[in-house]
């Protein structure tokens, strides 16, 4: 009996695409033996066919027309690795309309157009696989949709951006300012030339949107989230946090109250107890903690980005695509299954700010003179924000002091109102810095 040949097209041969091509070429004999098919790397779409690449690809296999790969009836599996959302959306929809399997590492695409993509796949019999879109080589998507399928998820949180984690780690270890460490990260290739997507929290927000969909069956847009970055954190914040027994991490937090059926998704710098295992995850590594109502807490740690880690996840989806095409794997991969499983009750509502509760760290640069602390305390008292501790130290600017307040439990609306009123106080010299204090189970 002849062995079936499945043809794979790669739209995009940047860092990840080259990694996929390299590892599929090297591992193809073993994969073919395990899967019972022949795998052919049929075409690769690039902007510039003459550009030097780290892998040798025959010129005859290159094209500048990515949509031609999506439309090619002889190609069974289309890997969308171009990035962005415009061309990536066209490629994905074109391939799905032809009943193909599409593999994507594009969290921004899924966040912006996930509902349309899954609807198109359902209508035309295509499949959309996206393990590489979140946390690189960590198989978190398979864990949520397959391994933990018996669970509901009250809490998912973790480090989803390796660039920010590297910067924060270096700031703490070297007692170095943000701008210096950011420059080092760019030189080492850990940060893009335009770092804003990473350091302002949007990359993590896109990934959190994907995880929220997998866990709860609804799309939460970044504008519905609290999204804050790391640019205003200073070495002094690490010293203050350490004095309080905390480290600082940029975390994505997906919380659902199943009694009120409210959901919040947020990304922000967070003070984590130094003893917490996620607080010990440093450098470019990611970590995701998943709390299930049946299994309890599970934790996933690994490289969240980079050529090999992301290529590993893409190839994992290619293997699943082969199984789908051979009818060896069921509906667990389809968007229909995710939505049906997640919606065991009515879709959750987005929680209003007053229902998102926790403790807070607030740093103020103020005039160094009598009466300032009492004026600040009067503002917090009017908003029913109770102060738990105060740390006062000299500020970098002359004639100023740094005040760090920690609060008892409060809520996002009360803190927003507090900060709005503190800005109006004449002794407050700079924009307040607000960080959340984690209260997660170990």
TrEMBL record:
Single Gene Ontology BP annotation:
methionine biosynthetic process
For this UniProt record, give its keywords in alphabetical order, as a comma-separated list.
Answer: Amino-acid biosynthesis, Methionine biosynthesis, NADP, Oxidoreductase, Threonine biosynthesis
Residues folding into a coiled coil are: none
Q: Which segments constitute the ACT domain?
A: 361-436
- Please list the residues that make up the active site: 207
Alphabetical list of Pfam families matching this protein:
ACT, Homoserine_dh, NAD_binding_3
Q: What class of enzyme is it?
A: oxidoreductase
Cite the GO molecular-function annotations of the record. Answer: homoserine dehydrogenase activity; NADP binding
Family label: Belongs to the homoserine dehydrogenase family.
* Protein's UniProt name: Homoserine dehydrogenase
């Amino acid at each position: 009996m002849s062995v079936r040949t499945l043809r794979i097209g790669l739209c995009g041969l940047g860092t990840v695409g080259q990694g996929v091509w390299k590892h599929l070429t090297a591992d193809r004999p073993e994969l073919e033996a395990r899967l019972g098919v022949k795998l052919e790397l049929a075409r690769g779409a690039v902007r510039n066919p003459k550009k030097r690449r780290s892998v040798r690809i025959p010129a005859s296999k290159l094209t500048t027309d990515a949509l031609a790969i999506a439309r090619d009836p002889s190609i069974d599996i289309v890997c969308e690795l171009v990035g962005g959302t415009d061309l990536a959306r066209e490629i994905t929809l074109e391939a799905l309309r032809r009943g193909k399997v599409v593999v994507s590492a594009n969290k921004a695409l899924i966040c912006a157009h996930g509902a349309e993509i899954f609807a198109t796949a359902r209508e035309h019999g295509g499949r959309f696989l996206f393990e590489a879109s979140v946390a690189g080589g960590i198989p978190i998507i398979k864990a949520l949709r397959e391994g933990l399928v018996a669970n509901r998820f009250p809490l998912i949180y973790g480090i989803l951006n390796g660039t920010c984690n590297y910067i924060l780690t270096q700031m703490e270890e070297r007692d170095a300012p943000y701008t210096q460490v950011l420059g080092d990260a760019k030189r080492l290739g850990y940060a893009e030339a335009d770092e804003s997507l990473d350091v302002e929290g949007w990359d993590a927000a896109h990934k959190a949107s994907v995880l929220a969909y997998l866990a709860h069956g609804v799309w939460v847009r970044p504008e519905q989230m609290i999204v804050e970055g790391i640019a205003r954190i200073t070495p002094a914040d690490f010293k203050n946090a350490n004095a309080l027994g905390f480290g600082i991490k940029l975390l994505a937090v997906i919380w659902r109250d199943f009694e009120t059926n409210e959901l919040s998704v947020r990304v922000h710098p967070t003070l984590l107890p130094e003893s917490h295992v996620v607080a010990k995850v440093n450098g470019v590594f990611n970590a995701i903690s998943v709390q299930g109502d049946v299994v309890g807490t599970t934790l996933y740690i690994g490289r969240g980005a980079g050529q090999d880690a992301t290529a590993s996840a893409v190839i994992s989806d290619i293997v699943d695509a082969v199984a789908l095409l051979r009818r060896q794997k069921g509906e667990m991969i389809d968007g229909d299954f995710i939505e049906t499983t997640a919606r065991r009750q009515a879709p959750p509502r987005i929680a209003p700010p007053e229902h998102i509760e926790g403790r807070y760290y607030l740093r103020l640069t103020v005039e160094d003179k009598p009466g300032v602390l009492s004026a600040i305390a009067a503002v917090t008292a009017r908003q029913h924000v109770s102060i738990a501790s105060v740390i006062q130290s000299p500020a970098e600017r002359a004639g100023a002091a740094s005040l760090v307040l920690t609060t008892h439990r409060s809520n996002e609306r009360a803190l927003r109102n507090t900060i709005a009123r503190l800005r109006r106080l004449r002794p407050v010299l700079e924009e307040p810095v607000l960080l959340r204090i984690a209260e997660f189970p170990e």
